[in-house]
TrEMBL record:
SUPFAM superfamilies: PLP-dependent transferases (SSF53383). Its cofactor is pyridoxal 5'-phosphate. Residues 16-321 form the Aminotransferase class I/classII large domain. Keywords: Aminotransferase, Pyridoxal phosphate, Transferase. Pfam families: Aminotran_1_2 (PF00155). One of its GO terms (biological process) is alpha-amino acid metabolic process. CDD domains: AAT_like (cd00609). This is Uncharacterized HTH-type transcriptional regulator yjiR. The keyword Transmembrane helix does not apply. One of its GO terms (molecular function) is transaminase activity. It comes from Serratia plymuthica.
Length: 353
């Protein structure tokens, strides 16, 4: 498809896709956003170099060094060094494995004026895999707009929801433009396909200017090729297959955990994506488990990585995006065996926390 696009438009390789980026691709993104309940125009969207740049730009345009940012706990671990690099402070907000961010805790912090912005993944949260209920999403949008505090909504996994109709984005309930929605195609197409985007609400113009002086432009050739893939329906077909594959792999992984992990372990039931969260019973330290298994060339991400204060020491994030082969299943069984040794408990867990 890339070579076909280049044959038809050889001049693309000699052009910059200056901010806000390819109009053709932004039109397709705006059209797709309707499936998440968002009514955005192509002019509301700025293309970025993946979702991480979108998040970085959103933070830079809404905050200043020394500001305090509310985060889910556990949260995506790369947010922590990102905040530190911008001189921002992180404040953990309790997050339920089934229902997501605690809105009561958030409202208390907003009333006390302790937050300058919030970053959250209301749909298919990483690492928990949960999606906030519809009523909670509406309340979240209302809280942020009422208090006039920016919400940076990370929607990276929103198109990989399992089941029927997609749960709408919080951005779809944004009254006054205080929600900035960030996403990309890296998790649905390929990690190396570094094209992301942001719908910046009231910060839209400032975002474009900041993008221009930060990384200037995106690849025009890749942007136009991706737009063509979206136009032809190839992306929708790909997504349907991807959802089925990830749903099957998640269930297979949870079945292995039920068989091999120590009794009293709890595992989340993700609403989409390919990651979920495991909490071990007392006696299992995921950091110690990490070091022991690394000697056997098995790599884990212990729960402390997902907290700025080192919480969740008995937690573990598991990923099911890799081929579900014998090597993976044997490694997962070995993790369970080591955890049983540490806890002194036999295998057999409670699922669906």
């Amino acid at each position: 498809m890339l070579s076909s696009q280049l044959r038809r438009q050889p001049d693309l390789i000699g052009k910059y896709a200056l901010p806000p980026g390819s109009l053709r691709l932004r039109q397709q993104i705006a059209r797709r956003s309707m499936t998440l309940g968002m009514l955005v125009e192509p002019g509301d969207i700025t293309l970025t170099h993946g979702c991480m740049e979108a998040l970085q730009l959103a933070l830079r345009v809404t905050t200043k060094p020394g500001d305090c940012i509310g985060l889910e706990s556990p949260t995506y671990f790369y947010l922590l060094p990102l905040l530190a690099s911008l001189g921002l402070k992180a404040l953990e907000i309790p997050t339920d494995p089934q229902h997501g961010l605690s809105l009561d805790a958030l409202e208390l912090l907003l009333n006390e004026k302790r937050l300058d912005a919030v970053i959250a993944m209301p749909t298919v949260q990483n690492p928990l895999g949960c999606t906030m209920p519809l009523a909670a999403k509406k309340r979240l949008a209302r809280l942020m707009n009422d208090h006039q505090v920016p919400l940076i909504e990370d929607g990276l996994y929103a198109e990989i929801q399992f089941g029927g109709a997609l749960s709408p984005a919080v951005k779809s309930f944004d009254r006054d433009g205080w929600v900035l929605f960030c996403s990309s195609f890296t998790k649905t197409l390929a990690p190396d396909f570094r094209i992301g985007w942001i719908a910046g609400g009231r910060f839209n113009e400032a975002l474009r200017k900041l993008k221009a002086v930060s990384s200037m432009a995106e690849s025009q050739l890749l942007s136009e090729t991706l737009a063509m893939f979206l136009e032809t329906g190839g992306y929708d077909h790909h997504l349907r297959n991807l959802r089925k594959r990830y749903a099957a792999q998640v269930e297979a992984a949870r079945a292995l955990i039920a068989r091999h992990f120590p009794r009293g372990t709890r595992a989340t039931q993700p609403a989409g994506g390919f990651v979920f969260w495991v909490e071990f019973p007392a006696g299992v330290d995921s950091v110690a488990l990490f070091h022991q298994l690394l000697e056997e060339q098995i790599c884990l991400t212990p729960g402390t990585l997902y907290s700025p204060s080192g919480r969740h020491r008995n937690g573990l994030r598991l990923s099911c995006c890799y081929p579900f082969n014998a090597r993976y299943t044997q490694a997962l069984a070995r993790v369970g065996a080591k955890a049983c040794e540490m806890s002194g408990l036999p295998p057999g867990i409670e699922q669906g926390e």
